[in-house]
């Protein structure tokens, strides 16, 4: 294999690597559109999902992707107690590996957990979300959706709005969108921005109204209610009034501008229900593209013989 | 015990540097001079050609883990690591299980340390079980020889309690040492809060979490007149605060750890918990400030904060792993590389010995009549740090695979050669 | 070109060096015309006939045959032409680098049709077998026929073409290159 055998973060993929995934995704969009949306490419390979955080959608998306490639799947998740509480991560991984597997898709609440796992296994490790750090396949499907709608990201202006500080989606999206040539603006109150933005190729604004008319795409992050108890925000209502994409605000978007969200949405908080259902909101397409993107990643890592490019 | 003769070395202590052999008998230095007579019937000779003969090193800050965490280290294995690192005395930190907060536990550790390869001194806790609520019995511990007290692992958060502790300590001629960390500000931080924590998505603690408590304890020192020793200072701000306090004549001393003069927070990008430590690895300008503080005397001593952890614990994800790094076997080489030989010897021998109040026995000078606590350093010897080859029971050294220059060839404890030709004798 | 690349290209990059030309542009044009007539004859017209070119060498050839069919059977409806990339169906997945070259485009239902697969060079037959497997996932054709410009022998599977531009015996180590301007035999020279 000439390229990387793991997908731990978008920061490891340069523009070339991301564009290669985009190109292969086109083929899998075609496969997924068929009546028999299946190819035999990964027959005999086993893809295991190891989810320490609950996430039915992402896990199902990966499993669907694996199955459409004819791979066998196994699922370990803390919500079904098949991950033993108290057993160390390393022991769990070594137990799974002993069963003979080709890839581990892992979601964990600790940043860097997939990086540790990659030290303990011969299988390919795919990061499905680690702590606040990265969620690379989300950024890939977001990029694919944007490219579909806007043609190219060079020179495009994208705003990412919300709790950037705690968001792995934001970190991965910043890497991906800027690698593809976009200008990214982060919009958030100071308490929801990372302590330091040194080296981040982004602009920052605390004024959503000023940013909205200028963007080609607006990406809304989920506002978690737990943030209220951490003294980061006085109230959800205040958040929505300053940073929510309300109907009034959405009217000021350019005609071609698209609205995105990683899901699940807090309708009425970061996004008004009507805005989420409007034609320029592409949230369901993001989900649909998710399976094809994950098929592309699994194919590149396990079937293509070339891995992922840097 | 037979006579011991150290031949061919260059003696280096607080009085200076000179070519000299050293003769030892009955645990004491009996002769220091050039070309000493090697023909004694029962004289054991240690070759020191091309080497530096220095006082045995003194570590103000070691975690020996016994009692309670013997899977990580025992007093025996920790003392062996210390001896191989050139130490002849260490101060064992009290965050054991149970904590060293009473005469009984002090005695237990002293008994376990009696047969160790270094002199094991004990630091007592400031508060009972280090909970920060109630003063521990200083006097009964001081009776057994305890001269340093600290809740290390945590800082004492209650300002009023800390004031009372300082006032009480004044009468006993002991020193309180502080692990400076404001718990509320540091809460949930696993690394330095800054550029790298933001990039990696790991919750951090700002430099101010350390500096706030440094500021507070300098104020309490001024208020009470009691001496204060600052453990493991790591930020430029802390160094500047101590510099100003010393300029005003306050009885403040400070130490820094080797990792805070050699490593920065960007090492965390591999997410390897071997780089997780408290206080955390900081920025390049913090490292430069700490080195400058050692050079101008603001920081008195190098102390290892040797913190072994069982390997399985250091393989957990970064935020779940316990903080701490090994240090005893690598400290000397790293310190010489960053500070030069003379300053390394000063910060590792006589200055910490004075702070620990054991300078009658340890830290030099190398002169007739003094107890024979020495180390012989081959300053040219290069070696590669292999975590599995270290004497410590644990492996969490951040310098794994690094090539270092300078290794201790012999270590002599009260006249007994406990390390000969780079190997521990027991 | 695709066939030899798939089977024999070593991992390192190389450059195809032609040794001799076996068909020129004129020969190819005549072959395309003949194949088109044979398709019409064999299928008694063009009812239910579709062309599917294999990426990449078979795609331009399928288009040329499609145009020729339109020319000679002007009364018939246009024959649908699609393209198929068989990367995901190859039997050497995992043995060597495999990437799709283009997105498959079959914008019509193949069930009940006569699919004429089109490729430039027929060699071991493994690509065609992969194409047959792929077609299965698109529907159930009434029949599948195979048209190739060059049959160079060395079959490893029981696959045979229905329409052939030229039979060209070759050595296993030789390579056949088909372009719009002609067909040549040569070899890949390794660039070190």
Distinctive features:
heterotrimer, B: alpha/beta, Urease, subunit C, domain 1, TIM Barrel, seven-stranded mixed β-sheet, 21 strands, C: 192 residues, alpha/beta, Rossmann fold, three-stranded antiparallel β-sheet
Strand line-up in the sheet with most strands of chain B: 8-9-10-11-12-15-16-17
What is the second-level CATH architecture of chain C?
A: 3-Layer(aba) Sandwich
The Rg value of chain C, from CA coordinates, equals: 16 Å
Strand content of chain B: 15-25%
The proportion of strand residues of chain C reads 25-35%
Largest beta sheet: strand ordering of chain C: 3-2-4-5-6
Rg of chain B from C-alpha positions? 21 Å
Mean pLDDT of chain C: 90
Helix content of chain C: 25-40%
Largest interface: A-B, 24 and 22 residues
Mean model confidence by pLDDT of chain B: 96
SSE class of chain C: alpha/beta
The CATH topology assignment of the largest domain in chain B is: TIM Barrel
**Terminus-to-terminus distance of chain C:** 22 Å
- The SSE string of chain C, one letter per element, is HEHEHEEHEEEE
Walkthrough of the structure:
The complex is a heterotrimer of chains A (310), B (426) and C (192). Chain A is of the alpha/beta class. Chain A has helices at residues 15-32, 56-68, 89-97, 113-120, 136-150, 168-179, 208-211, 236-243, 247-250, 273-277, 283-303, and strands spanning 46-51, 72-77, 103-108, 124-130, 157-161, 183-187, 202-205, 217-220, 258-260. Chain A folds into two domains: 10-134 and 287-303, Rossmann fold, CATH 3.40.50; 136-286, Rossmann fold, CATH 3.40.50.1370. Helices cover 38% and strands 15% of the residues of chain A. Chain A has a five-stranded parallel β-sheet. Chain A is globular, with a radius of gyration of 19 Å. Chain B is globular and about 65 Å long. In chain B, the strands form four sheets. In chain B, strands 8-9-10-11-12-15-16-17 form an eight-stranded parallel β-sheet. A seven-stranded mixed β-sheet of chain B has the order 3-2-7-18-19-20-21, covered by helices on one side. In chain B, strands 5-4-1-6 form a four-stranded mixed β-sheet, with no helix packed on it. Chain B folds into two domains: 3-53 and 367-424, Urease, subunit C, domain 1 (Roll); 56-355, TIM Barrel, CATH 3.20.20. The two termini of chain B are 16 Å apart. Chain C has a single domain (2-190), classed as Rossmann fold, CATH 3.40.50.2020. Helix content of chain C is 27%, strand content 30%. Chain C has helices at 2-8, 25-42, 58-72, 126-136; strands spanning 14-24, 49-54, 81-84, 114-122, 143-151, 163-167, 175-179, 182-190. In chain C, the strands form two sheets. In chain C, strands 3-2-4-5-6 form a five-stranded parallel β-sheet, sandwiched between helices. In chain C, β7 and β8 (182-190) form a beta hairpin. The radius of gyration of chain C is 16 Å and the shape is globular. Chains A and C meet through α1 of A and loops of C.
């Amino acid at each position: 294999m000439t390229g990387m055998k793991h997908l731990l973060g978008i920061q490891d993929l340069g523009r070339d690597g991301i564009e290669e995934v985009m190109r292969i995704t086109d083929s899998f969009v075609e496969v997924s559109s068929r009546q028999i949306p299946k190819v035999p490419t990964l027959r005999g390979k086993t893809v295991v999902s190891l989810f320490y955080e609950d996430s039915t959608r992402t896990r199902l998306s990966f499993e669907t992707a694996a199955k459409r490639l004819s791979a066998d799947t196994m699922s370990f998740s803390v919500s079904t107690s098949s991950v033993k509480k108290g057993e160390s991560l390393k022991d769990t991984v070594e137990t799974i590996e002993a069963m003979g597997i080709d890839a581990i898709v892992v979601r964990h609440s600790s940043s860097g957990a997939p990086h540790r796992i990659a030290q303990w296994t011969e299988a390919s490790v795919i990061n499905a979300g680690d702590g606040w750090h990265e969620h690379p396949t989300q950024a890939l499907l977001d990029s694919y959706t944007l490219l579909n709608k806007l043609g190219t990201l060079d020179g495009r202006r994208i705003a990412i709005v919300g709790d950037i500080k705690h968001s792995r989606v934001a970190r991965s999206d910043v890497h991906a969108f800027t690698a593809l040539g976009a200008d990214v603006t982060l919009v958030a109150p100071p308490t929801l921005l990372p302590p330091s933005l040194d080296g981040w190729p982004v602009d920052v604004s605390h004024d959503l109204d000023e940013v909205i008319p200028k963007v080609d795409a607006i990406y809304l992050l989920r506002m978690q209610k737990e943030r209220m108890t951490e003294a980061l925000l006085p109230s959800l209502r205040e958040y929505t009034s300053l940073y929510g994409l309300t109907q009034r605000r959405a009217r000021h978007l350019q005609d071609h501008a698209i609205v995105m969200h990683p899901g699940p949405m807090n309708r009425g908080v970061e996004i008004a229900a009507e805005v989420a259902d409007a034609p320029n909101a592409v949230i369901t397409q993001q989900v649909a593209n998710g399976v094809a993107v994950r098929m592309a990643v699994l194919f590149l890592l396990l079937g293509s013989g070339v891995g992922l490019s840097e | 015990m037979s006579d011991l003769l150290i031949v061919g070395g260059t003696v280096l202590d607080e009085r200076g540097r000179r070519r000299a052999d050293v003769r030892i008998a009955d645990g004491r230095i009996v002769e220091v001079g050039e070309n000493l007579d090697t023909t004694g019937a029962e004289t054991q000779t240690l070759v020191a050609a091309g080497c530096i003969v220095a006082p045995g090193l003194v570590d103000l800050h070691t975690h020996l883990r016994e009692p309670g965490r013997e899977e990580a280290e025992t007093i025996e294995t920790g003392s062996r690591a210390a001896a191989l690192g050139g130490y002849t005395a260490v101060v064992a930190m009290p965050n054991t299980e149970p904590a060293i907060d009473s005469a009984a536990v002090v005695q237990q550790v002293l008994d376990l340390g009696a047969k160790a390869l270094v002199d094991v001194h004990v630091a007592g806790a400031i508060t009972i079980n280090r909970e920060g609520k109630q003063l521990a019995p200083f006097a009964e511990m001081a009776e057994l020889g305890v001269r340093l007290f600290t809740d290390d692992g945590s800082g004492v958060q209650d300002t009023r309690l800390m004031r009372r502790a300082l006032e009480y300590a004044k009468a006993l001629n002991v020193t309180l040492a502080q692990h400076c960390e404001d718990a509320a500000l540091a809460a949930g931080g696993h690394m330095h809060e800054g550029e790298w924590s933001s990039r990696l998505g790991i919750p951090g603690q700002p430099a101010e979490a350390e500096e706030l408590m440094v500021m507070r304890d300098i104020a309490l020192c001024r208020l009470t007149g009691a001496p204060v020793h600052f453990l493991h200072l790591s930020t430029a701000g802390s160094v500047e605060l101590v510099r100003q306090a010393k300029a005003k004549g306050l009885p403040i001393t400070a130490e820094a750890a080797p990792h805070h003069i050699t490593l920065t927070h960007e090492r965390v990008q591999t997410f390897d918990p071997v780089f997780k430590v408290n206080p955390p690895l900081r920025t390049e300008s913090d490292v430069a400030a700490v080195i400058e503080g050692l050079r101008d005397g603001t920081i008195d001593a190098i102390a290892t904060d040797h913190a072994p952890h069982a390997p399985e614990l250091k393989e957990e994800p970064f935020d779940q792993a316990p903080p701490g790094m090994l240090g005893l076997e690598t400290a000397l080489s790293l310190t010489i590389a960053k500070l030069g030989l003379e300053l390394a010897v000063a910060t590792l021998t006589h200055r910490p010995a004075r702070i620990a109040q054991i300078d009658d026995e340890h830290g030099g000078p190398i002169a007739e009549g003094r107890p024979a606590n020495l180390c012989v350093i081959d300053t040219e010897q290069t070696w590669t740090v292999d975590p599995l080859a270290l004497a410590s029971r644990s492996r969490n050294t951040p310098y794994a695979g690094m090539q270092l220059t300078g290794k201790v060839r012999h270590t002599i404890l009260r006249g007994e050669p406990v390390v000969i030709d780079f190997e521990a004798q027991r | 070109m695709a066939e030899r690349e798939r089977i024999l290209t070593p991992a390192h990059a190389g450059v195809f060096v032609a040794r001799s030309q076996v068909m020129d542009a004129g020969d190819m044009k005549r072959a395309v015309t003949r194949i088109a007539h044979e398709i019409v004859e064999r299928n008694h017209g063009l009812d239910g006939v579709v062309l599917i070119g294999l990426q990449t060498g078979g795609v331009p050839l399928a288009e040329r045959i499609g145009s020729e069919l339109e020319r000679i059977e002007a009364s018939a409806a246009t024959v649908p032409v699609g393209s198929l990339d068989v990367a995901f169906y190859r039997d050497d997945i995992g043995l060597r680098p495999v990437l799709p070259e283009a997105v498959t485009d079959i914008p019509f239902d193949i069930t009940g049709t006569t699919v004429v697969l089109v490729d430039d060079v027929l060699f071991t037959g493994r690509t065609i077998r992969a194409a047959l497997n792929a077609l299965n996932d698109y529907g159930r054709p009434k029949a599948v026929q195979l048209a190739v410009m060059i049959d160079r022998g060395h079959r490893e599977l029981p696959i045979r073409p229905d329409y052939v531009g030229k039979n060209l015996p070759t050595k296993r180590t030789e390579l056949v290159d088909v372009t719009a301007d002609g067909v040549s035999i040569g070899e890949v020279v390794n660039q070190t």
